[in-house]
Design brief:
homodimer; globular; 48% helix; alpha/beta; 4-stranded mixed β-sheet; 3 domains; Rna Polymerase Sigma Factor, Chain: A
Chain lengths: 381, 381
């Protein structure tokens, strides 16, 4: 799911290097019919599905004369997820990923999770479904994959702390005054990772790390107070797990998403991946700083949302998407992203926020929060 | 075994904080009857054994009126090892530790291994005995404990490399000329660890890391070419295991031997240890350099000995002990330590070295090599 995006393309890159070990049943994309058709043909998929029904005829045409079945629309996507498979990559971006990913979990398919919203907006519901179906959830985000590799779940009561690292993004060394004038072009210059614009802006505000804190809370057997963030500009150490005997286990790698994707593909074994091997001597030095909660209030907001346990993480995520879009369109400045999220969280709280109990309630709250953020955005301008 | 030494005292420190979880059957020391008696009384041991029989009456006297049995001599030590226990700490220093540790392994007792000679001088014989008895060997050296924590033996064919870190010791930034004039006092100033004089000098010449390379070869399922050493002055990252998907798992901790000892005591669980928790923000930076094989030839000699696979590691270890003693007594300079070891290895090789096939052959070769080193020492002076 999400084959045409960055994670999807990297996944297929790995699968394509070892075709004897994998059989691709279905591939889905959002709108890019041309690429999806190419991928489906190259990987001998049985089925290619576009989430956006308007691209159906283009896809159908591109697949004419091949054995690949073409389909489009949400129902077709759900049907594809329903096909019996061993493993699914859940890499649809945004809340569109919620329903199909939850469906895969419900069926007990092993899910490699790259979608953030499942845990940020619907964490409790999602993890209850994981527990009920007994399926295996393999996080694909580099930080959570690292945590999963460094954690020993047999001694969960001995885990004292889990530390996620953050590069600090392009504004790590900027003053608040400089940040107030930052343009989208400034924010899109991520020092280490190449990602889509939404994720890159989230890295610049540290909201990405806030969202990852929320995800880590759902993925790992720790409380919010046991989760911490440290700034590590080189993005080599991805997560550290601290145990009661003073030991810290950490996962390190060159910043290449194919490493965590390969881990999720081969787990519990390991497969070869064509990534640059870590050369600590060449890197020379790994540095660590405390995050600045003043210049990066998004991190504080995410922690507040997590601790309130009342649906605030859904509001945070929805309002952030609206705010990031507005920033990318040059409608608001960088500091207004967090300001808008904070305002939306406050307004939602005043209006009587309560924890959503179903996926429909999550999607309703998500929609309401977007509306709320849009109207607050008008006030802000 | 070795209760009165640094590792032994730290082990008892941990056990003493949780007396309900441990029952101490026997404690052994070398010569320090007073401390051994105190320890045996404090920890309600059944038996206290001095390896050196000359201290027997002092021990007997110190234990008079207590329920602790006193004994002395090698036979008494072997009898103590023969008592049925779940776990033994093998922390006797030097080749004196070979027989009793091997006996514990033979009996199938879980062995926490702090003695270096078992693997350096008698690695093949030792590991064959481990395999035969099916016992669990838990390395206590911080680097090997770290490797043991970071290695996933279920995917051994996916391990590409194991990297041991070395602080670089007090002479890391010294020139060869300065090192030639280094005094024992200079060499005993270890930047991070507090150890006995032999280990501290080995850290200054990097012979300790050479010996650890040899041990790592026996402990982990990799070839000599898959083992590497990197200089890491802060001694925070202790070992890194690199996998075929580009992931590197590492263990980090503040330099305190109670962390690896606690790991060996509680394995496969974890116990609480009163060590300083790792604070990467406070530390700020972790740096890494390539080792300089010119200024630190000991590292090269150890690798050569490992690769020759003909008993040369026994010669290396024996000659090094003689050389370190001579350096500590101001009879030779620092560069002569490696020179003496190299000369002994060459002479032994010329005399027709062959791999020892029993512990007796190891002990013979060890003794011969000491004699050889002593005579070469005279030539050197």
């Amino acid at each position: 799911m999400g084959a045409t995006g960055s994670i999807g393309r990297s996944t297929l890159d790995l699968i394509g290097r070892d075709p004897a070990s994998f059989h691709v049943v279905a591939l889905s994309g959002n709108r890019n019919a041309e690429l999806l058709a190419k991928q489906a043909i190259a990987h001998n998929a049985e089925l290619a599905v576009l989430a956006d029904p308007s691209g159906y005829s283009e896809l159908k045409e591109a697949l004419a004369g091949t054995p690949v079945e073409a389909a489009a629309g949400e129902e077709a996507l759900m049907e594809a997820v329903g096909r019996p498979v061993d493993w699914v990559m859940a890499a649809i971006v945004g809340s569109a990923g919620l329903r199909p990913t939850l469906e895969a979990v419900r069926q007990g398919t092993c899910v490699a999770l790259a979608n953030k919203e499942c845990l940020v907006s619907a964490g409790d519901i999602f993890m209850e479904t994981v527990a009920k179906s007994g399926t295996r959830l393999l996080p694909v985000d580099s930080e959570h994959s690292a945590g999963f590799q460094a954690i020993d779940l047999n001694v969960r009561e001995s885990i004292e702390k889990i530390v996620l690292t953050a590069s600090g993004g392009p504004f790590r060394t900027w003053t608040a005054e400089q940040m107030a004038k930052a343009s989208p072009q400034d924010a899109l210059k991520h020092p280490n990772w190449s990602m889509g614009p939404k994720n890159t802006i989230d890295s610049a505000t540290l909201m990405n790390k806030g969202l990852e804190l929320i995800e880590a809370y759902h993925l790992f057997p720790v409380g919010p107070e046991q989760l911490d963030v440290v700034i590590h500009p080189q993005s080599i150490v991805h997560c550290l797990v601290e145990y009661s005997d003073g030991s810290v286990l950490a996962q390190l790698s060159s910043p290449d998403m194919r490493t965590p994707i390969a881990y999720s593909l081969a787990w519990p074994a390991r497969m070869w991946a064509p990534t640059e091997r870590l050369d600590l001597v060449k890197i020379g030095s790994l540095s660590f700083e405390a995050p600045d909660y003043e210049r990066f209030p998004a991190l504080r907001l995410a922690r507040e949302a997590l601790e309130s346990d009342n649906g605030a993480t859904t509001v945070l995520n929805a309002a952030n998407e609206i705010a990031v879009d507005a920033f990318l369109d040059c409608r608001i400045g960088l500091p207004s992203i967090s300001a808008l999220v904070a305002a939306a969280m406050e307004a939602a709280d005043r209006a009587g926020l309560s924890k959503p109990r179903s996926l429909d309630e999550v999607l309703d709250l998500d929609e309401q929060s977007r509306g709320l953020a849009r109207s607050l955005l008008k006030e802000l301008k």
